[in-house]
Structure formats: C-alpha cells, structure tokens
Amino acid sequence: MKKQILLFASVVLSTFVMAQTKTSVGIRAGISSSTLKGDAVSSLQNVLNFSNGAITTNSNTGFFAGATLSIPVNEMFSVEPALYYSQKGYQLNGSLTVKGAEFLSANAEAKLTSHYIDLPVVLKANISGFQIFAGPQISYLAKADLRTTAGALGFNIVNTTTDATDQFNQWDAGFTGGIGYKLSNGINITAAYDHGLSKVNSGKSLEAYNRAFKVGIGMQF
Fold first, then answer.
1. Residues 191 and 212 sit within 8 Å (Cβ to Cβ)
2. What is the rounded CA–CA span in Å between residue 123 and residue 135?
3. What DSSP string describes 178-208?
4. Using CB atoms within 10 A as the burial measure, which of 3, 7, 20, 220 is most buried?
C-alpha cells in the first residue's frame, strides 16, 4: 500500500509540474449513498434471508465536500485532482412484530459511518459542457463510528456510539468515474461512482469493499 501511495503522489506531482496552461480552482459538495460489497457481505445477506425480512441491510446516506483543481491538457481534456471529506458506511435494520400485539414491536439499527479523506485524480473530457471523467482514488480513514439503537413501546432502550476505527484499514485504493454538466457560469453538476479495491477490515481476512454513488454540485472559479 505504501508503494501505491508513493506512486499516486508522484503522478499528482508530475501533473502539476507538466501543466503548461492556467489552472482553475473549484469547490464541490453533495450527498452519497454507500455500502459494502464482497463475499463477506454476500454471506451475511444469505444468513439474513432466513429472517424473512425481519433483518435487512441498507445503504448509508451521507455527504461529501471538498476542493478541486482543474489542469487543462487541451481544449477538450483536463486533469482534475481533488480533496474531499466523504462519509461512507453500511446499515443493518431489524424489526420484530408480535401478531395481535403490534404495540410490542421492537426495532433495532446498527449504522456504520466511516469518515474518509478522498484524493481522486481524474481525466476529464468536456464536450460542449457535457463531462465524462474517470481515474484512480486513494482514501484515508480518519474515523469509523458504529451507532447501535434499539427501541420498543415507543421508547429508546439502547442508543450507543462506539469508535470502531481500529477494526478497519486506514487506507483504501480504488477508482472513481462519472458524468457531469458544466454551465457557462462555472456551476457544474456531477454524478459519480466510487469502487474500492482494498479490503476494508484491518485483518484483511474478509472480502468487503467500499462502494458509493455520489451526486454533487460545484463551482469552478
């Protein structure tokens, strides 16, 4: 992983050194829908199928925000490094209803929220405002919180938040890509998909990877 990070950093540095035209700075923020995928998650889902819907998995809704730097290569293509704060994660939801006594229903939720610093470097094509982009991404896990809640009869019985950072790898390598549209005033709208390639758990014994869809709005100055 250290070699990957050094190689990635050298590519970013080379991009700045080789840039011969004026660069522009931008900001972007939006919402994300993230989850975990892999053999470990599939096995868990197979187990949950026996619960007849009493326990379900859901994506985690979060947000991202950060700054971008657009380095033109020619009239159509540009290289865009960016630095984002990004929330990712996963959810488990459970419910139990006693027939004839629905007021006794209990609900539980386990929500993993991972706080990442994402550093993507994408090659972007701009065709009359329509944009297509893709490239590698390195992510650093700043913190991971696991919130557990449970309730019955309208009362919260359990509501705890645990620091789970040490259960996950600090670094994640992957790629990102998507589409967008840039207006003449610099405002742009993007939709992107992040595909993690590194196992997220610290022991690397489980096949689980970050996946996320992002929709954002930005401004290029």
1. no
2. 6
3. EEEEE-TTSEEEEEEEEEE-S--BTT--S--
4. 220
Q: With the CA atoms of 12, 13, 15 and 19 taken in that order, what torsion angle do they form, in degrees rounded to the nearest 10?
A: 150
The string of pLDDT tens digits covering residues 59-84 is 899 999 999 999 999 989 999 999 99
pTM for this structure? 0.82
Distance (Å, whole) CA 214 – CA 31 = 6
Q: What's the pLDDT score for residue 50?
A: 44
Structure tokens at 78: 């540009």
pLDDT, tens digit (0-9, with 9 covering 90-100), for 116-134: 999 999 999 999 999 999 9
Residue 190's nearest CA partner among 112, 91, 122, 144 is 122
